Amino acid sequence: MISFDHVTLHYAGATGPSLRDVSLEIPEGELVLVVGPTGSGKSTLLRTINGLVPHFSGGTLSGRVTVAGLDTATHRPRDLATVVGLVEQDPAATFVTDVVEEEVAYGMETMGLDPTAIRRRVEETLDLFGLTPLRARSLQALSGGQQQRVAIASVLAAGSRILVLDEPTSALDPVAAEEVLASLHRIVHDLGVTVVLAEHRLERVVHHADRVVLIEQGQTSELLDPAAAMAVSAIHPPVVALSRLVGWTPTPLSIRDARRRAGELRDRLADQAPQDSRAPVPGPTPGPMGQLRPRADSTVVAAADLAVSIAGVKVDRAGRRILHGIDLGLRQGSVAVLMGRNGAGKSTLLGAVAGQHRLAGGTIRLGRQGIDPHASAPRERVRVVGLVPQQPELLLYAETVSAECVAADRDFGAPDGTTDALLLRISGGLDPASHPRDLSEGQRLELALAVILAGSPQVLLLDEPTRGLDYGAKARLGAILAELAATGTTVLLATHDVELAAEVADRVVVLADGEVVTDGPARAVLSASPAFAPQVTKVLLPQTWLTVDEVATALGQTA
Question: Does some domain include residue 79?
Fold first, then answer.
């Protein structure tokens, strides 16, 4: 169905090829998962399937890519549109209509299908992806996760026999993600559709895959059995890391398979209790942050002092009440995580705290000075609160990575090289000559985070900060958040990534329909939730271990 024959891709000005001698044969009717680090070439590989690379992206492609017998060198993306459907990382950028139902129908209308057939297929697709209640909603009024589901549904409705998906669950809550993946599983097995997807949250998808392709610096493996791939992959989910720690073979990929083998491990851990070393403390202890620049005004505060005070906050957007009287107080130096289903109000709450959304009621006060973000000047506000949004490119405007770092140092009055040093710590290093739009989604997020941290905000807000990040990048992010908290920065992040919450949070707040429904210590909240429990917890319940590192420490081993 899809054939890569010694494919190499060079972009003009790049230091090396983005794809290196790729040869693969992907058969019809399989779900193939592409696994690799951030910036390894996953998105580039996917875009060669429908001809966007190189017809749209530019670059020099050698070798041959054929899709359903069509050579992508002689067939442009519009010629392949009826064969291949592509869902991008940022679905909102691909929408061409204003309403959910119209977007799902658009592709079929351009193909000239009969109106009766269009109506039938729209109804089936809306039901398949749980979008029927949203059919008349404006696309701009949807949450990021809801937009992702609409994008996938519109591609499937157009009748493509090949679906190519780039991070399809990155903006979805755990339940919605499983619903989408289950739908993909059904169309592969029942309809024979071929699905090729790249995904960093392997804990969600690897057990659905028929085959796995590993990619590193543009070089790919052959098609591998998922268990065999995870046994050797540097990128792997927590259940695989736990398996490696205790020596389970073959490698289990699902919670069910891991639980079947975990009896002995639970017995070994039965006499030990997880330690809540990350519980909120009265105040921060200033200390070194490596290459991170600590705030000069970081001081120890009393237990009762709050860095974020949210009282009775109500927010209306597009004529709808989104937040219904939120009350929340965060101590200085704490890391709190907002969780909840798509559309619960997490992003809206972060925007309100950052002063971006007008309040319909209530108050917000930030920092030791207790400033009102809605009444303060932007230059004053950015010194107190910094927000990294779901679309990090909104913060990036320079022509190169290097220029972006220089501009951030200048804008915040930071010493020369501050942002560059932060970026090196966060990302491990990006090409300074690259244009931000040429970076992967994860790399753009890393750059935007470095830019915001250059201002040393007292309160750091992160909206879905792990979109596009592999496990190594997430570990670096977690270490940075811990160090920021240790020097007095208060962190509030919204995420669907339960594994990140398990690693970094000392407190978890769950929203539903614009209200706080759960607020408590991370271990208590996560271990009690069937939807938000991390993989290690699910494997070892009723014990409440959250991470592989915790288990390794209890066993006297190194993860």
Answer: yes
Interatomic CA distance for residues 82 and 179, integer angstroms: 25
Tens of pLDDT along the chain (559 residues)?
899 999 999 988 777 899 999 999 999 999 999 999 988 999 999 999 999 999 888 889 999 999 999 999 898 888 888 899 998 877 888 899 999 999 999 989 988 889 999 999 999 999 888 899 999 999 988 876 788 889 888 988 988 889 999 988 887 888 888 888 888 888 899 889 999 999 999 999 999 999 999 999 999 999 999 999 999 999 999 999 999 999 999 999 999 999 999 999 999 999 887 876 554 433 333 333 333 433 333 333 344 578 999 999 999 998 889 999 999 999 999 999 999 988 899 999 999 999 999 999 999 999 878 899 999 988 889 889 999 998 888 999 999 999 999 999 999 999 999 999 999 988 888 889 889 988 887 889 899 999 999 999 999 999 999 888 888 888 889 999 999 999 999 999 999 999 999 999 999 999 999 999 999 999 999 999 888 999 999 999 999 999 999 999 999 988 7
Domain extent, residue 478, equals 306-528
Residue with tokens 């320079």: 398
CATH number of the domain bearing residue 100:
3.40.50.300
Distance CA 354, CA 366 (A): 9
Report which of 77, 86, 79 is spatially closest to residue 46, judged by C-alpha positions. Answer: 86
What distance separates the 2 farthest-apart alpha carbons in the chain?
69
pTM of the model: 0.85
Instruction: Read off the tokens for 202.
Output: 């392997």
CB atoms within 10 A of CB 44: 23
In the DSSP assignment, the letter for residue 415 is: P
Contact by Cβ (8 Å): 301, 283: yes
Tell me, yes or no, whether 372 and 228 share the same domain: no
Rounded to whole angstroms, the Cα distance separating 206 from 227 reads 9
